[in-house]
Amino acid sequence: MLLAVAASAGAQADTTRAARDSVRRAAAEAAVARDSVGTHLEKVVVTPGTFGLLAPARGAAQTLGREEIVTRPQLGEDLFRSIARLPGLSSGEFGAGFHVRGAELDQLHVSLDGLELFEPFHMKDFDNALSILDVQSVDGIDLVTSGFTSEYGNRLGSVLAIHSAAPRADSVRTTLGASVTNLRAQSQGGFADGRGGWLVAARRGYLDLALKLAGRSDSIAPNYADVFATVTWRANDRHRFAAHILGASDALQYTVNNGGISSRYDSAYGWLTWDADWSPSLTARTVVSAGALDWYRAGDAQIISAFRSTVIDRRSFGFGGARQDWLWSPSSSFALKWGGEVRPMHASYSYDAVKGHRDVQADTLASVQEVVDIGVKTQGIQWGVYVAPRVRPVSWLVAELGVRYDDTEWSGDRNVSSRANVMITLGPRTTLRLAAGRYAQPQQVFGLQVADNVATFGAADIAEHRVVGLEHRFGLIAVAKVEAYERRVTQERPRYINLRGDVEVFPELELDRALLPATSGKATGVEFSVHGLDLGGFNWAMSYANARVTDRVGAVDVPRTWDQRHTVYVDLSYHPPESSWRVSVAWQVHSGWPESPVRFEVDTVNTSKGLKSVIILTKYGPVTSLGQNFMPWYHRIDARYTKDVVTRHGKVSFFVDLFNVLDATNPAAYDYHPTLKANTLVVTKTVNPQIGRLPSAGISWEF
Question: Is 14 exposed, middle or buried (0-12, 13-18, 19+ CB in 10 A)?
C-alpha cells in the first residue's frame, strides 16, 4: 500500500510538472507567434537589446519573471542591483546605478508610469548606493539597451521604463518587512466595487548596519526613506485614471580623520495619468506632472597634509510637464504612433568652495588656493514631438520609421532625430532585429559642473546607434541571443572626471580631478547570452560581452573609466516543483577598469631657518594617460536562499543572502605611499578594496 501511495504521488507530481511544462511550451510558441504574425502590430518588439522583466507579458521573449528578480542575490534588496547583471550592463559594488554599454549613468532614461525620474537614488555621496523604488511596488520593467524608438528623447544611451504594480481591488492586503538594510511596509486595496484601487508603500533605511557588517562603516550615519502611493479609477471600459506620488529623502553625517560631510537630498514627484480607448483602433495616454529635487552637501577634506579644503554646495530643481502619446492601429499591417511633451524647468545653484593644494614656487612650498563662488539661476522650456509609422508589408517583416524634434531653451539646442527599427522573422523560432538612428542629449538644467567652476551650458551630445541582434529559441530549453552594436558619438561636450575608481564624497577636491576635453567617442561590442527556460525547477542564464568604449581627445582614444573589455555573468537557481524554497547563485567576472598612472616628483624647498627640505609631490594625469594601466580582473560569487511559509495569518517569507561568498579582494583603486630612503624614492602600493564578504537577511509578512 505504501509503495502504491508513493507511486501515485510521484505520478501526480510528474503529471503536474508535465502540465506546467506544456503551458510553458504553449507560452513560448505564442510569444514567437505574436512577434511574427500576431494581430497586435503595436506590441511587436522591433528593437534589439530589449529585455522584459518581472511581468512575463512585457518586453521581448527573453524575460526574467518576478520570482527570478526578487530571489536573485542582491545587496540592499534593490531594484536596480537585481537587474545589473543583464548583458551589456556594468556597475560597481557600492553603486546601484549601472552603465549600459559603457554609457554614462545620466545617459539612461528612467521613467515610472510614463514620468521621467531624475537621479532616482539614495546615498548620492556614496556612488548612488540604492535606488528610491521598492521592487515590491513594481509590476514590470522594459529595458532597451540601445536603438530605442522615437517616443523617447533627450537621452543618448538607453531606456529603463518601469511600471508600478496595479493595486488589488478584491481585498485589503498588507505586507510588513525588515532586513539588514531597511524596514518596509506596503498596503493595498480597492473601493467602489472594484472599480478603484489604492496602494501605499514606504521604506525606512539604515544602511550603516550593513556597512558595519562589511567593515566599511567608520563614523557613517546615513538616514534615507521613500514612499510611493497610487490611486487608480476605472470610470468605464474606455477610460482609466490614476494619481501617483513618489517621494524620497536622505540625510548623512560622516566624519573621518581627514574631513567630513553633512548632506541632505530630497525628491518629490506627483503626476496624473489618463488612459483612453477612443475606439478599438485609437488609444491615447495623457500624463500631467510636477516635481522638485533639492541637493545640499557641506564639509571639508584634508587631501594634502596641513591643507584643508571646504565646500558648501546647494542646488534645487523644479519642473512641470504635460505629455500625450497616441496610437492608431487600423489594421494588422499598419499602426501609427505620435505625440509630444512640454516641460517648463528651473534650477538654482549656490556653490562656495576653497580648494587647497601645495606646490613648489621659487624653492618655496606654497599653499595654492582656488576659490570657487558661483550663484546661478536658470529656467526654460524643453519640448519635443515625434511621429512613427509602423508597417507589416509581409507576414515576416515589421518596420518602424520614426522622427522626432526636440527644443531645449536654456542651452539653445534644437535637434532632429530620425530612427529606424526592423524585425525580420527568419523562422518559427528565429528573429532578426535591426536598429539605426540619431540621438541627442542636451545638458540637464540642473547639470552644470559648478564644482569645477563651469557656469555655462554646452552644446548637446549627439550619437548614432547601429545595432543588429539575432534571437533563437531552442524549444523549451533556452533562448539564445547575439547582438553587435556601435554607438558613435559625433559631438561630445567636455566634462570633468576623476581618474581613479574609488568612491569619494567630494570628487571635485581630489588630486585626480581632470578635464576630459573630448570631441567625439565610440562604443562597440558583441554580446552573447543564453537564458534557460524554467524546467524542472532550474533557471539559468549566461552571457559574455566583448566591448570597448572610448573618448577621442585630440588624436588619442581614451578609455572611459567604465571601459569593461570582457564580462561574464552566470546566474543559477533551483526551485523544486511544488516547494516553497529557492536557492540562487550568481557569479561574475570581468576584466579590470582602466587606471591612470600616478607620478611622484621629488623637490627641495627653503625652510624658515634657511635649510633645504625635501618634499614629494603627487601628480595624476594627463587625462590621455587613462588606460595606460588596467586594474586586475574582478570576480565575485553571491548566493541567496529564500523560503515562503503559508500560515492561517498570511504568508511569511524570509531570505538569507551572502555577498562575495569567497571574500574576494577586488580593488576599487590603489593607494600609493611614497617615502625617501637613503635618497631613493620608494613607493608602496596598497589595495583600496571594494566590499568584502557581507551577510544579510530579511523577513516579510503578508496578510
Answer: exposed
